[in-house]
Amino acid sequence: MAENLKCSHCNNPATVHLTQIVNNKIIKVDLCESCAQAKGVTDPEGFSLADLLSKAPLTPESGQPQITCPDCGLTTADFRRTGRLGCAACYQSFVPLLRPALEDMHAGTVHKGKVPEVALSRQTNVAELKGLENALQSAIDEEAYEDAAKYRDQIRAIHQAVEAGKVDKASATETVQS
Amino acid sequence: MIESLLKSDKAELTQSARKGSPVVLSTRVRLARNLVGTPFPERASSAQRSDIMTRCAEQIADLPQMKHGTFFDIAELSDLEKQVLVERHLISRELCESESGSGVFINKDQTCSVMINEEDHLRIQFLKTGFNLRSVWKQMDRFDSGLESELDVAFSHEFGYLTACPTNLGTALRASVMMHLPGLVISEHMDKVIRAVNQLGITVRGLFGEGSDATGHVFQISNQQTLGESEQGIMSRLGSVFKTIIDHEINARFKYLEENRARLLDQIGRGFGVLQNAHVLNSNEAMNLLSLMRLAVDFEMLPEANRSDVDRLFIECQPGHIQFSAGEGIEPEARDLCRADTLREEFARLPALDFDKMNKLG
Fold first, then answer.
1. Residue A119 in contact with partner chain B when CB distance is under 8 A
2. What is the dihedral sign for C-alpha B240, B241, B246, B247?
3. Cβ(A56)–Cβ(A80) under 8 Å?
4. Helix (H, G, I), strand (E, B) or coil at B32
5. Measuring CA to CA, which of B55, B215, B327, B342 is 20 to 30 A from A175?
6. Contact B36/B152 with Cβ under 8 angstroms?
7. H helices within B32-92, ranges in order?
């Protein structure tokens, strides 16, 4: 047993030694009694090293990029304190901080699962429709009726595609167990 | 407000224990979802939170799976009512503590609950008794697709579904089973199992208590990682680990039976006697006795038909349920009397233990 191990957060002797395989890498962390407690390692609710590594260390580290999310105002300090992000846009702002953390936290860093196709195409459609409606209005304003008719057809086509692409909610009933 | 949930004779967890499911009590799948354009609940203003609640509630109420479901505004529930819902696994402790603008939808048979403005805008859960990963996921997938066809969920092709905590990114899927593992606990193998599965990125925690000798020997086992693996990948990995744990548990039970037959029969017999005759029972003792009774069903000493009674009592003997049915704010000591009364009544109805069945085994 290595007796001289120091806690990775303070310099007290480490008495709690954790090993976990995350993303095919062995990760080891040594903590003293009080840091282990503060980190929730002894928490009966269970804990994971992934969580532990993602949470802000007890002492602030210097040299971290100072980021503020333009959408919700979350700062690097906020993120390090809570381990949580403020809004969807944070995921663009905080990429430099996130990428390395995700490697230790998850099996990979790129999503491999379900994609919400309907919601995504609707969001694209909304943006496209807005552009077409603007173009239609200015075509009408300029009395360019041929162009206007073309835009109107395109708008109609998108509306029809949206209707056709909607998930048939009625079909979902059949698997609901009674 | 919640009386109808408790009186329901169709509630999944308390009324329909799966036949021949000796180790796994129930299977649960949860997804986290957020809507674009509004900060996550913790950073949203109260106006934004109530806007999210209104928008989501409208769509959720429309889904066929929520037909005859009920919506509860958390602000309108008493502390005791919230505790009862937590004990039934329908809401989380975090939701109980949330500010205004949080709520939960619960469907008729209590297999599905959707929390609004918990850590994420939406936390969807499907739950079934028995070992049922794939069918529970199928139901969840349909429900989620139904929601997504109406709501703009926050998603990125790189990170998947965007969640308040990066530990939930990607699929935002947490799949778990509730396992009854008396064999592994008694044979002192539980620590080893917890360490081994932890190393595979799987979390084990006691349902009613702490660490490796959790009260009632009931553990919740779930995946930790959500990004970089598909839903199917996560579930097939979990599925094979769960099957291994089940095998170890069954082996441990038979080994214990072989080596300590008289001791095991004595424990179950005494446990049955206590449940039929005790007048004061605290929560821990009740859970441990019920654990022995579940084992008695597995060994066919009690009829299979009584499995769901034992599983129901696991839920109904928790402090919130006992207090709620007593009807008033009673002291913990009075609670122990009520619990003993309930159990005495229930176990008076059961047939005597069939020790012959056990003697034929092993």
1. yes
2. positive
3. yes
4. strand
5. B55
6. yes
7. 46-62, 79-87
- Which among B42, B153, B201 has the least Cβ separation from residue A116? B153
Do B160 and A111 make contact, defined as CB atoms within 8 angstroms? yes
Tens of pLDDT, residues A59-111: 445 566 789 999 999 999 999 899 999 999 999 999 988 988 898 899 899 99
CB-CB contact of B249 with B270 (8 Å): no
Residue B226: closest CA among chain A residues belongs to which residue?
A106
pLDDT digits (tens, 9 = 90+) for A43-63: 444 455 555 555 444 444 556
Output the pLDDT for position B115.
97
Pairing of strands B24-33, B103-106: unpaired
Give me B357's structure tokens: 């069945």
List helix spans (H) across B97-220.
133-148, 182-186, 190-198
Exposure letters B320-339 (e unless 16+ CB within 10 A, then b) = bbbbbebeeeeeeeebbbbb
Distance of alpha carbon B26 from alpha carbon B13, whole angstroms = 8
Q: Where are the alpha helices (DSSP H) in B229-306?
A: 231-259, 261-277, 283-298
**How far away is chain A from the Cα of B214, in angstroms, using its nearest Cα?**
10
B73 vs B209: CA distance, rounded Å: 29
Take residue B153 and report the two structure tokens written for it: 């969920």
Alpha carbon A61 to chain centroid distance?
23
Q: Which residue of B has its CA nearest to A22?
A: B201
Over chain B (362 residues), the average pLDDT of each successive run of 10 is 78 73 93 96 95 94 91 94 94 89 94 96 95 94 93 94 96 96 93 92 79 79 95 94 95 93 94 97 94 95 93 93 85 90 96 84 56
Q: In angstroms, rounded to a whole number, what is the distance separating the alpha carbons of residues B145 and A11?
A: 51
Instruction: With beta carbons under 8 A apart, name residues in chain B contacting A17.
Output: none
Which residue of B148, B200, B229 is in closest CB contact with A119? B148
Produce one character per residue of B299-308: b if its CB has 16 or more CB atoms within 10 Å, e if not: bebbeeebbb
Instruction: Collect all residues with Cβ–Cβ distance below 8 Å to B41 and sequence separation of at least 6.
Output: B49, B52, B98, B102, B117, B118, B119, B120, B121, B164
What ipTM, to 2 d.p.? 0.83
